[in-house]
Design goal:
Shape: elongated
CATH architecture: Beta Barrel
Largest sheet: 8 strands, antiparallel, barrel
Structural class: alpha+beta
Number of domains: 1
Strand order of the largest sheet: 1-2-3-6-7-11-12-13
Number of helices: 3
Radius of gyration: 31 Å
Order of helices and strands: HHEEEEEEEEEHEEEE
CATH topology: Porin
CATH class: Mainly Beta
Helix content: 10-25%
Length: about 280
């Protein structure tokens, strides 16, 4: 009887030891995630070492981005070619819209039901002001050299040509004199219908064939925080200021004096790749 109990206990201890050894062995085997993490660390260490030795880690980069400006929005594309470890020559294209701080969107509603009955419109808006910028510049590394977290701070400066585009802003009005509705644009200080009887926007494409081109110049200065410096993927945040000067006044609102020079600050989210 005691012999059987002893043999059972011996078997239990043996199985327990075997299971414990197997568990320890499995724990010592790195997972696929750990392997990739270690490979990534080694890759970054290699890139840092190459850079410290004076070699160019990448040859070129490209990125897309979106800016929120204090007076509108901008979509952008930028292409860069590395000249040295710290300096990259760039060229870029930007398209955006500039707005007045006095713009206020109105949604027409049915007074009896309270439901919208037309397209929202901006009261007193004279023109949609779009722009297409073509720039050349440089990206200069000023901080983050050799850091393993891959965060780099760069100064961004560029300048170039701006194509200002003024599209007349049309609204649909109700004319009580004729009891009809039709689309109109601002005709000047003597225009009594445009500001008195608007009921909705005439649509974004209305007036596109009357778009006026105005040439100008643009300049930009900013700081770029690149969170993927030692990565084939670009992931960055940029903050800065920019200014544009046009050869003619660019009227946006009827009751706001037009101007030639526009200044704004911005924050941008940017992503892309390196080769």
């Amino acid at each position: 009887m005691f012999r059987k109990i002893f043999l059972l206990l011996l078997c239990a201890v043996t199985l327990s030891n075997a299971f414990s050894q197997q568990t320890n062995t499995s724990a010592n085997v790195p997972s696929e995630k750990d392997k990739k993490k270690e490979e990534r660390k080694q890759h970054i260490d290699e890139l840092i070492q190459r850079e410290e030795d004076g070699a160019l880690v990448f040859n070129k980069q490209f990125l897309f981005g979106f800016k929120l400006n204090t007076d509108g929005w901008t979509a952008l594309y930028e292409h860069g070619r590395y000249k040295t470890i710290n300096l990259t020559n760039t060229w870029g294209i930007e398209f955006g819209e500039r707005k007045s701080h006095k713009e206020e969107k109105i949604t027409p509603t049915d007074l009896s039901t309270g439901f919208p009955v037309g397209n929202p419109f901006v009261y007193g808006k004279q023109n949609n002001f779009y722009y297409l910028n073509f720039t050349i510049g440089q990206q200069r590394l000023i901080g983050g050299k050799g850091t393993k977290n891959g965060v780099a701070v760069s100064a961004i400066y560029s300048g170039g040509f701006s194509a200002g585009l003024l599209k007349p802003y049309y609204v649909t009005i109700y004319d009580p004199n004729t009891d009809q509705t039709y689309d109109v644009k601002y005709q000047g200080p003597s225009d009594s219908l445009f500001l008195t009887y608007p009921i909705s926007s005439a649509g974004l494409t209305k007036g596109i064939g009357e778009t006026k081109f105005v040439p100008g110049l643009v300049a930009r200065l900013g700081l770029r925080f690149d969170y993927g410096r030692y990565n084939e993927l670009v992931s960055a945040i940029e903050i800065g200021i920019s200014g544009e000067f046009y050869t003619q006044d660019m009227p946006i609102m009827v009751n706001t004096p037009p101007k030639k020079f526009f200044y704004n600050s911005y924050i941008a989210i940017e992503f892309g790749g390196r080769k």
